[in-house]
Structure formats: structure tokens, C-alpha cells
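Page 42, continued from yesterday. The earlier attempt failed because a stray header line got pasted into the input along with the sequence. Redoing it now with the clean sequence only.
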Amino acid sequence: MATMGGYWDALSASALAGLEGCPILLTDGSSLSSQTASEVKRLGASKVYIVGGTAAVSSEVASSLKDVPGVKSVKRLAGDVAVNTALKIYEEGKGRWGKTAVVATSETFQDALSVSPYAYAKKAPVFLANASTHTLDPQVLSAIKKGGFSRVIIVGGTAALSPQLEDRQLKGITCKRLAGPTAYETSGAIATWCLTQGMSAATVGVATGASYYDALAGAALCGKSNAPLVLVADGWTSNVSGFLKRNKNSIEHVYVFGGSAAVSTSIYDSISATLNA
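This time it went through. C-alpha cells are written below.
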């Protein structure tokens, strides 16, 4: 459960959702909507994680979740800043993670969301870099080094994540950086790379990169389907069209997350035309 009021705390949530095999639901920060409460009940959830502090998801929401029939446990994972919330998520799953860790910036949401299906499917924790220094805070670096990871995937260019990550901080650990000139091209690069890591192009997710709501919720479905997620926006469609063209013969389903205000009709039609060409 994450707030609709800000993306920061939720950036690392997909990895935990992958460990638990669960979806990510959004809530208003101050109160639990009837739709969200109904979905928790429909899912038959007995345990709910709240990602973020009380400024993001209030105590009232936590209390309301405890009143949903079937819910036995509500646990909050929160740090004073997003970097430390991500660390709390990692610590919650300790002992269950895979051998790959992911590092993304906490300054923007696009790169972390693009890699979220991989994090879900491969049980790869997502650590966040400091938005001011573009490097890893000491406590985060320590967690990665002690975590027994055989490699670290860095998502985003050097403007978002300093080259010090590979050159100094993570020296001795195999690192791979996935990046493009823009967040949309980075998204395409991540999706293409995912197909080399055992993920499938049979299903592809598409969401707007202009806001985070749809991609955050859709990332869990993509991860469960072992499918990549590609971000789009009006004027930024070459990444998704190129990806779809290259993998057209493998694609069976495309999920477009969000209404026409998020992913425009012209983009939707372009996706259909590319697949049917």
C-alpha cells in the first residue's frame, strides 16, 4: 500500500511485492478509499505492508486497513527519507533476495519504475541513491556490500547517478549501467535488457512516464507476468515503437495502463498500428 500523494517511498515497493507475490495498491494519504478497502477484501489479504511514514500514509489509513475483514497484520516500512525507506524494504526481505541488486535515483521516478518488473520477477532489491550527491549514502553502500550480491544494475545516466558508483563505491562488484539520453530511452534500454535476463516479450506493459500512478500499479502485474514495462509520452514514442517492432513476432498481449488522459489515443493507435503492420 503506497500513497497517491508522492512517488518517493514507493520506488522500491515492487521488489517487496515480488517477494510476497502481491499487487501494489494506492491510497489517499489521509483516508482509505472504499475502492481500495474493497480490493484488499476481494484479494483475501491477511497481511498489508504500508510503504512510507505517517506523513505519506496516515495512521487513520493503517487503522482502517486493520478493520478490513481478513486482514490480520498491517506493517509499516518507513524511513525519514526515501533512501532509508528503500533500506527498510530491503531489510524486511533479507534472506529472500536474489543475487542481483538494483540502484536507481530517488530524484525522479521513471528509471526506478522502468526496472520495477525486473525487480519483482527476479527478487532484486531496489536501493536508492542520494538525490543531492547522486551517490550512495554510507548505510546503503554497507547494505549492498554485506548483502552478498554478485552484481548491481545501475539504472540511469551519469547525470542521475554519478560514475563514482562503478568507479569507486561499488568497485569490486560487477556493475552494469542501463541508460539512454532521456528517461524514455532509458526505459527502452531496460526493457530490451530484461529480455536477455529470462523475461519474455509475450506480454508488454506500457504506461505514461509523465506521472507515476499507473506505472507503479502496473509494474507488479508486469513482474508477475515476467514482462517488461516501457514508458511513453506524447512526443516520446520512438522507444516503445522500436521495442515493439523488434519483438513483434513474440508479442501476444500489450497492457496499456491508464486512460486516454495518461496514454493518449494517438499513442494507443500507434501501438496497435505497429503490432498489426
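Notes: The radius of gyration is 18 Å.
Reminder to self: strip header lines before submitting.
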